[in-house]
Amino acid sequence: MGKNIKSVTASLRLGTCREKDIKDAIQYLKELDIALLSEKRLEIADLYYEILKQIQLLYASQEIEIPEEIMMDIRQLFDNIQGICSEPKEREASEAAFSVIMFLAYLRGHNCLTGDNDFSNTDEAIERVSALRTDLGTIQFIFDLRVEGQLYFPIENMLVSVIKDDQFVEEMSNIDSGHIKVLYLAVHFFDEEEQKRQILTDIVNACNLKFIEYMQNQSELLDTQDLHNYRKNGVIIFIDSSRRKILIRHNDPEYFKGAENIQYENSFKNKERRIGYYVELDIPEGAARASFEDVMKKQPEKRMELLKLFYSGYKNIFGKYHLLEQEGEFLPVNPFANKDRFAIDVMREVPVDTSDILLERYVNLSVKRSASWILNRLTVGTIVQLLKIDDKTKDEVFGLEYSEEDFYQNQLLQNWILSVHDRASAMRELLNSMYMELRYCVRRKNDGNKDEVSIEKHTVCAQKYLPFYLELSKLLYLLNDDIQGKKVIVQEAAINSKTKGIILLEENPVRTVNETEIAVRHTGLEELKTGQSC
User: Fold this and answer.
1) Are 380 and 410 in contact (CB under 8 A)?
2) How far is CA 289 from CA 54, 106, 130, 280, 284, in A?
3) Helices within 312-422 (DSSP H only)
4) Other CB atoms within 10 Å distance of the CB of residue 22
5) How many domains does the chain have?
6) CB 233 within 8 A of CB 342
7) Is 370:510 a contact under the CB 8 Å cutoff?
8) Out of 84, 121, 236, 366, which could bridge 377 as a Cys pair, Cβ 3.0 to 4.6 Å?
């Protein structure tokens, strides 16, 4: 064969897939050497999954009847390849296509034709659903495949068996991603059958599981597919944009302490046993949904407001659309998020105490930039570093009024040093971090040292600080009596202006765009005299 598995899969993804392309791909998979089943498991799973998706797009999505020949072929193909699921490795099981093949093999193993027609093992069913790494809606037609009048992949039978098990509801007090996925599948697959929809309605009414109503209304779950936010913080958030409602659920009533109208979910067997708590909130009038990443990247004039919210205690606001914006002010979708123990950003889970690490990708962005002088700017990184040194200075950092008479960065640093508890220690830590950022300014004597970064090769994209000018006498004045008996490390810079260029280290820095040669060295405070620039 001239083609390989990956190229056949890629050709199906071109977006111009026809019936002939699907049949050719099926034929290719039929003729594949059986020895490759163990060697190319992921590639085979990927191709079979792509065939299913293309059938869904070409026929089912357009309500066109799928040719019986194709339905028979994909069933026979599955019988041939399902062996690839035996003893899967962790990396294989985490792939979307492979997880789908494993799930289909599980359903086939319990149908009434080739299996035992038994889905009574609820734990196994939940575990299998939890292992799914993609949405089944893209291949929904496959669950209507019948052989001798019987469903070949009986997903609805499995869902009914699981949800009608009393233990399923009892476990809601320790709900996990498997429970949520089971319920989502049930909402999706029960949609057209009143009798099956009633199963969910009965559970909602009996146990007050309000979040299932939000699922039925196609509300959005603000979490990753594997419920990272729930697993780390115990909170589930649904947002219903059409009704402008938010539901926040938690297992611990203390999470909602101080809130009004806290509701609870009860056990199916014991109405007095509470298995969860929730509050419903209205989306404020005029408020629009916002994403931390989108605002930081596309709306520079609003970055300072986002940082102010983050440092006010709402660290878990990095998820997609976890923010609301109302009249220029940002609010968390979850007003109780200041009690979360972890900040979640896509697939990362960071303890709130170190969550400023999630700001690292934004450190070079400006939070304030002069309209008159483009070199006069203040970065996210400067603010992050100052508050990392002393987070009790946030009122001074965010409350400062800036003038155009001096660099914004200079104004912030001078006001910040006056507000810290231990000025000498804070300045030492700040200047040490600045030195690491500004090493590219140092003239190199040895061009062969690969560890050093020359100004010609320096990339400014991750720059927290700009070079700045400050009289040493002024620095000593700011430090005041805090320097007694302590060693303070500062920077001494010698300036030699040339003709033209880009660096900005002169007495009038805002208006200086001449190229500058800068020699920087670490110097003990006791070695310097007042009146020198640093």
Assistant:
1) no
2) 34, 40, 29, 17, 11
3) 380-389, 394-399, 408-419
4) 24
5) 2
6) yes
7) yes
8) 366
Q: Is residue 435 part of a domain?
A: yes
User: Mean pLDDT in runs of 10 for the chain (534 residues)?
Assistant: 83 89 94 85 96 94 92 95 89 93 96 94 93 91 94 95 86 79 90 85 89 92 86 94 96 94 86 90 96 94 96 95 94 97 89 95 90 83 93 93 88 90 83 70 54 52 59 60 48 38 33 36 39 33
Task: With H, G, I as helix, E, B as strand and everything else as coil, classify residue 245.
Answer: strand
Mark which of 143, 163, 183 sits at the end of a domain.
163
- Each residue of 303-316: pLDDT tens digit? 999 999 999 999 99
- Residue-number span of the structural domain to which 437 is assigned: 387-527
Residue 41 belongs to some domain of the structure? yes
DSSP per-residue letters across 284-307: PTT-EEE-HHHHHHH-GGGHHHHH
Choose the final residue of a domain: 123, 138, 163.
Answer: 163
Asked if residue 85 belongs to a domain, the reply is yes
- Would you state the pLDDT for residue 476? 61
CA distance 183 to 306: 35
Retrieve residue 501's tokens.
């260029």
Specify if 414 maps to a domain: yes
Residue 410: CA atoms inside 13 Å, Cβ hemisphere, count? 22
Residues 6+ away with beta carbon under 8 Å from 336: 235, 248, 250, 255, 256, 259
| H-helix or E-strand spanning residue 437 | helix 423-437
Structure tokens at 309: 């919210």
Q: Kindly tell me the sign of the dihedral angle through the C-alpha atoms of 33, 109, 195, 209.
A: negative
If you search the block for the tokens 């938010």, which residue do you land on? Answer: 246
End-to-end CA distance of the chain: 71
pTM: 0.77
8 Å CB contact between 239 and 222: yes
DSSP secondary structure letters along 226-243: T-HHHHHH-EEEEEETTT
Cα–Cα distance between 422 and 432 in angstroms, integer? 16
